[in-house]
Design goal:
The structure is a single chain. By secondary structure, this protein is an alpha+beta fold. About 25% of the residues lie in helices and about 30% in strands. A hairpin with a 4-residue loop joins strand 14 and strand 15. The radius of gyration is 22 Å and the shape is globular.
């Protein structure tokens, strides 16, 4: 059985008429300011920190919009699309994105671009020869062929920019973008754009496609997967395929979140740059999941506090096999996060082009994950135990038979690649 991947795509579409706008440099008055290696490394860490805070705010907004459904999305993917928008934004729109993306640590856009560029190059080499784990993230600026893109933007985003003929062949360009998505995500995300979503008026599509595939470091045993009850609520229960394994895992009981936390590492990568699934399991009681989500999203530093805090010990783990596929309209989610003005006609994206008035119309993310005995991602319930005494002889119990929260976390970038809430079987 092969590990099942998860993939996500965020796509922003826009359609505008061409009108003159004010001139200016792409990123700053002097785009070519060079920074030391230490400065660039510090900037990259600050960028990752901002992404972590953005992740929790996004989780709160999406969960508020879908309070009774399973949730799965890629904060990493959406953050990268908004970051591309930030590079093309000016005036109050630039300030709005700086605030929304937690970039308040600098007013120097070239510094952010350097951090982005370093991260992109590091990602390209880091997983290139790893047979056990794959993570790919590709950004694209699909401009209309007739859009006069600023020369400095073409220089700085040479790898991201591609010109498409929306005006004469809009349907062919829709198919082309869908095929690009399908290719980057290894066939996991298909037919993202429906017929008619690309028109002759489309001027730009900003996209990120992200693909992850991992094998558990400690695999579940297929012969031990059995039908067991998953307690959706006090009133609702369903039988699910419950996986089982007993092994050594990092395990914690966090008082601030009032939940148990289990780290399920994926095989491959060095210890300091490993990728793991973290499962946050609240008590099996009414409204426990909602209370956990409220605590998670109330503190911007909570992830940095809880990641890596567990004690390595023997744990008896049960978690359901599951698959989640979601398409999320991100525009109302971003409006809920205070970023609705990004879609106003007055929004300023003149950094992309002096001559084309660019307005964003729509934000879509489609994400998919499947969890099985071999790999990928999932999480499940708890039975009470203590972590404050010496390691006991018997294994702790981490049985995910009721709703839980999970993330796929990359230690190297300190970023949440994918985020989900598993409330019920689909």
């Amino acid at each position: 059985m092969k590990p099942i991947p998860c993939a996500a795509l965020v796509l922003l579409l826009l359609a505008t008429d061409t009108v003159p706008t004010a001139s200016g440099q792409c990123l700053a008055e002097n785009d070519n300011v060079q920074h030391t290696k230490a400065d660039s490394s510090q900037s990259r860490n600050r960028l990752y920190k901002g992404e972590s805070i953005f992740t929790l705010k996004l989780l709160e907004a999406i969960n508020t919009a879908t309070p009774t459904e399973n949730v799965f999305f890629s904060p990493y993917s959406l953050y990268h699309v908004l970051l591309l928008m930030y590079f093309g934004a000016k005036t109050t729109t630039e300030k709005l994105l700086r605030t929304g993306l937690e970039l308040h640590w600098t007013n120097d856009k070239p510094v952010v671009w350097q951090a982005y560029n370093i991260g992109k190059k590091s990602l390209a080499t880091r997983f290139s020869n790893d047979k056990d784990i794959q993570f790919t993230s590709v950004d694209k600026l699909f401009f209309g062929k007739n859009i006069p893109v600023e020369e400095c933007m073409e220089d700085k985003f040479f790898d991201e920019i591609e010109k498409l003929d929306y005006e004469n062949e809009p349907e062919a360009q829709r198919v082309y973008i869908n095929n690009w998505v399908e290719n980057v995500t290894h066939g996991e995300i298909k037919d993202l754009l429906i017929p008619g979503s690309i028109t002759r008026n489309t001027k730009l599509a900003v996209a990120n496609a992200a693909y992850f595939k991992g094998t558990w470091q400690t695999k579940f045993k297929p012969e031990e997967t059995k039908k067991e009850i998953f307690y959706i609520s006090n009133e609702r229960q369903e039988f699910v395929d419950m996986m089982h394994v007993q092994g050594t895992f990092n395990h914690a009981a966090n008082e601030k979140l009032a939940c148990h936390i289990l780290e399920l590492p994926y095989h491959g990568q060095e210890e300091s740059s490993r990728v793991s699934m973290y499962v946050f399991l609240p008590p099996a009681e009414p409204n426990a999941l909602e209370k956990l989500l409220a605590r998670l999203t109330a503190s911007p530093d909570i992830l940095s506090e809880v990641i890596g805090e567990g004690i390595s010990r023997q744990v008896d783990v049960k978690m359901p096999k599951f698959s989640i596929e979601k398409t999320v309209e991100m525009k109302p989610v971003l409006e809920r996060m205070g970023m609705g003005n990004l879609f106003d006609t007055s929004a300023d994206y003149s950094g992309f082009s002096k001559q084309a008035k660019i307005e964003f119309d729509e934000v879509i993310q489609k994400s998919k994950i499947t969890v099985n005995e071999e790999g990928s991602t999932a999480a499940s319930s708890t039975i009470a135990f203590s972590f404050r005494s010496s390691r006991p002889a018997d294994p702790a119990m981490f049985h995910c038979n009721h709703p839980f929260v999970f993330i796929i976390y990359d230690y190297s970038t300190q970023a949440v690649l994918f985020n989900g809430v598993h409330r019920q079987p689909e």
